[in-house]
Amino acid sequence: MIKGLPSASLQTKAARKILSGYRERLALAHEPAAHPRKADPALPDSLRAMLASLDRTILAGQRNAVLLLGYSCAARIFELALNVADVRETPEGLVVTVYRRKLKKFTECKVGYGTNPATCPMRAVRALLNTLDASAVAAGRCWSASTGTDASARSSHARAAQSATRPGG
């Protein structure tokens, strides 16, 4: 604490009070900025368009697995940094453990087979895991929807996917 200045917690409380008053004033004036921004959900047609733009013959193109898995688990983009151990195969499909940041807990999502092989998350994840095994990426390493495909970008993670964001979010 610097002599003569209030503590950081008091400054934080004061800043929050000011921001709260500002948001309330915007809401009372019916300003559009008072409404929280929400991303539009990706609909099946937009998902198919995203998948059509990928070259699935290369490892980076197999990020369609992450896109399909995120869609089927209703996961946010930042929730899709998964370890290979977070994805378990069962006779009915996949069981994916996802950490939900907003809930601050892990949830298990059951992902079944899709009716269309081109958009089936089960088949896409299986192909990605086979490719990772074939490319000698160690088990337990991460594959994510984070930006970048360089396996050496972070020493503890091997990235198999580029950003899977969409307009409106």
Task: Write structural notes for this entry.
The protein has a three-stranded antiparallel β-sheet with strand order 2-3-4, covered by helices on one side. The chain is built from four helices and five strands; from the N terminus they run H-H-H-E-E-E-E-H-E. Helix 3 (64-73) packs across helix 4 (121-134). Helices cover 32% and strands 14% of the residues. The longest helix is centred in the N-terminal third of the chain and has 21 residues, at 8-28. It has a domain at 44-143. The chain has helices spanning 8-28, 44-52, 64-73, 121-134; strands at residues 82-83, 87-90, 93-100, 105-112, 142-143. It is α+β, with helices and mostly antiparallel strands and 169 residues long.
The share of residues in helices is 25-40%
Number of helices: 4
Intertermini distance? 39 Å
Total beta-strand segments: 5
What percentage of the residues does DSSP assign to strands (E)? 5-15%
Poorly predicted parts = 146-169
Biggest pleated sheet: 3 strands, antiparallel
Shape: elongated
Strand order of the largest sheet: 2-3-4
Q: Give the class from helix and strand content and strand pairing.
A: alpha+beta
Rounded to the nearest angstrom, the radius of gyration is 21 Å
What string, H for helix and E for strand, traces the elements in order?
A: HHHEEEEHE
Q: Report mean pLDDT, rounded to a whole number.
A: 75
